[in-house]
Specification:
The protein starts with a strand and ends in an 18-residue tail after the last helix. By secondary structure, it is of the alpha+beta class. The strands form four sheets. It has a five-stranded mixed β-sheet. A four-stranded antiparallel β-sheet has the order 3-13-12-11. The protein is globular. Helices cover about 30% and strands about 25% of the residues. Strand 4 and strand 5 form a beta hairpin.
């Protein structure tokens, strides 16, 4: 084994005007030569998804879906009931607000609907980054921050947006984390994902958390519907096209929802919907059976805040892809001298590649 050391950027004592030495990292390199090409070749092989493997993964996912529909806790896929038993028809009109919390940003939106004749009359939205420290703060701190930004957004209402005098503004709350819904406008957080670890929220009704925060801001608003982002995407698409049956999210995380016949849901004990169908939130980011995982996937999972969970999400979603690339580049820099005899300092920082 050979050890390579380096100093930080400090000029020699005898020459104060000398240019600083470049900063490099300490590293230990194996004496055996490894090429960057061989690392990439192995990665390519480990990532391969030939058609037979894809069929196996699809069959395993279908089996997990059926198990999740049969009973809670019977599968990695939670197959959560959304309580959305009817979808938009295009006749809807009026002013509505939406709040979308699903990752490192959240969006607030207002939309004026004009029915089949006017359709979407006007929309406005703001996208707000969530400060990193709030992802590890308390429930009250996070929801107070969200409600304060919503209040500022409501203050700008005007122009084409008309709210009926004295009417409580309705807001749809898109909450893209695993929630066990108990009605159309209530749901208990099962667990945080996507790097969030907010205390005091798991096991609580997230609608109540938001309503209380809006009350502290003096907002005359109420959450009329709690939906997952995939359910919201499905409802939004159905407003324009009656044939839409599935929605998929590929963003910070990943998930899918679809329209299911209630006769195919053994665990459904509530009254059957009038239309005979409902939307199921699969929470497929937790799927894991038969997925081709590389050493970099396994190392990242082991170092994550939720090891062994959300495996499908960790292999394909935006929050993790940059970190997988960073780990590959770090291995190439360490074992194959990709950047010469040094590893760039930033490349050693987890999640430095977005």
């Amino acid at each position: 084994m050979s050890v390579i050391t380096a100093t930080s950027a400090v000029p020699p004592l005898h020459s104060p005007r000398s240019a600083p030495r470049p900063r490099v990292a300490m590293m230990v390199r194996s004496s055996s030569a490894v090429s960057a090409a061989s690392i990439l070749t192995k990665l390519h092989s480990d990532c391969a998804t030939p058609l037979p493997l894809l069929r196996q993964v699809a069959h395993a996912m279908a089996a997990d879906m059926r198990a999740g529909l049969a009973a809670d806790g019977a599968s990695d896929l939670k197959m959560i009931l959304s309580f959305v038993d009817s979808l938009p028809t295009g006749d809807e009109n009026g002013l509505y607000y939406a709040l979308d919390l699903g990752g490192t940003n959240f969006r607030v939106m207002r939309v004026q609907l004009g029915g089949k004749e006017g359709r979407v009359v006007a929309t406005e939205f703001d996208q707000v980054p969530i400060p990193h420290e709030l992802m590890f703060a308390t429930s009250e701190e996070l929801f107070d921050f969200i409600a304060s930004k919503l209040a500022k957004f409501v203050e700008k209402e005007g122009g084409k947006f008309e709210s009926r005098p004295g009417r409580t503004r309705e807001v749809g709350f898109t909450f893209s984390f695993a929630v066990k819904q108990t009605s159309i406008n209530s749901g208990v957080l099962i667990k945080w994902t996507k790097g969030f670890a907010v205390s005091g929220t798991e096991g609580r009704d997230v609608v109540a958390c938001l309503n209380e925060a809006m009350g502290r801001q003096g907002l005359n608003m109420r959450v009329s519907a709690l939906v997952n982002d995939t359910v919201g995407a499905l409802a939004g698409a159905r407003y324009w096209d009656d044939n839409v049956m599935v929605a998929v999210i590929l963003g910070t995380g990943t998930n899918a929802s679809y329209v299911e016949r209630v006769d195919n849901i053994p665990k459904l004990h509530a009254p059957k919907s009038a239309g005979g169908s409902t939307i199921i939130n699969t929470e497929w980011g937790a799927f894991s059976r038969g997925l081709p995982l590389t050493e970099f996937d396994r190392e990242m999972d082991a170092a994550s805040i939720n090891p062994g969970q959300q495996i499908f999400e960790k292999t394909i979603s935006g929050m993790y892809l940059g970190e997988i690339v960073r780990r590959v580049l770090h291995r190439m820099a360490k074992d194959a001298t990709l950047f010469g005899d040094s590893i760039p300092e930033k490349l050693q920082m987890p999640f430095s590649l977005r």
